[in-house]
Amino acid sequence: MKRSIGIVLFLAALFSGCAMRSGGAAEALRGGLTPAARNQAEAYSQFLAGTILEQNGQFDAARKAYEKAFRLDPAAAEVALSLASVSLRTGKMDDAARYAEKAAELDPGKTQALVLLAGIATSKKNYDEAIALYRKVISVDPSLEDAYLYLGTLYASIKRYKESAEMFRALERVNPSSVMSPYYLGRIYLDQELYEKALAEFQRVIALRSEFEPAYTSTGFIYELMKRPAEAIKAYKKAAELNPHNIELRQRLAQIYVEQNALDEALGEFELLVSLDPENTDAYVKMGLIHVEKKRYVKGSQAFRTALRSQPKDLKVRHYLASTLIAMELYDDAIAEYGEILKINPGDPDAILQTAYAYSRQDRMATAAPFLEKA
After folding, report:
1. Which of 91, 133, 170, 217 would bridge 118 by S-S if both were Cys, CB 3.0 to 4.6 A apart?
2. Mean pLDDT, the chain, as a whole number?
3. Domains plus CATH for the chain?
């Protein structure tokens, strides 16, 4: 039964134009399989099994299936490439390089193998080798957009901005409608602090694809650097419309609003932020400070208490809470909070002084006296 399935799979590969070689097909069609054809049928069966296992995240099992396939058909470049890929997924970098080199040797036109080798070289900081490999990919297939993109970003990462820009412009010639070219040109201008040029490129991105959120985010960041907060807010708000679950965007918007003293707007962003990230202690603290600034002490104390649930030993937040309780004239609660602070830091001068103050507000001067002496 297993052999019958293997034969069916082999014939399916033959007629579907699969990358596995098809020697022995004539014998199969005549009703008999030569040893070579039988090996190929079993190799394809193992290759298909490995592909399914890899797709399901079972990388070790996939690797074993691919190894069996490659032993049966050592001239199959596609199997060598799959072995390279699964080796990379499991952190076996040297094996990945070896199999990718074998795939490129078996099929010199297999650009995927060259791209994988270039990526491995980049990860090892062998930049000249990676550059040569990407350029070889481009010479083999000048229409492969990823090669220009990868090489352009590699040049940018090592501060070779002129060559990086050349790659992205070449990418634009290959595909004039691609947003990647102007987007990455904008990024390299931003790296060089050429803000006006960067803005112009991001505007080109938006003209090509108005829903491309990273262009608005980058535009907002540039306006921040240029001290143009109103324009930064506008750009970030558009980015947030397109990507409402982006936590970093909400943080940036909230911070700009705080810097502009637009506290209600900042509070709205912090509320959205904690709805996305309920464990964001910093957001709760800032919400509490805004509420206190607006004399909304109950809400302020609630925000500080929420922050303390995840950071119970944060003395700064405990001080915020205790001082808010004093403002609310809840002196016993404030004294309890300062007591928690003094458990953590017995010599805290502010906690000692404020405890004395809270007792004095209750006309408990005898109890306040020892704290005043320590202060």
Report:
1. 133
2. 90
3. 1-107 (1.25.40.10), 317-375 (1.25.40.10)
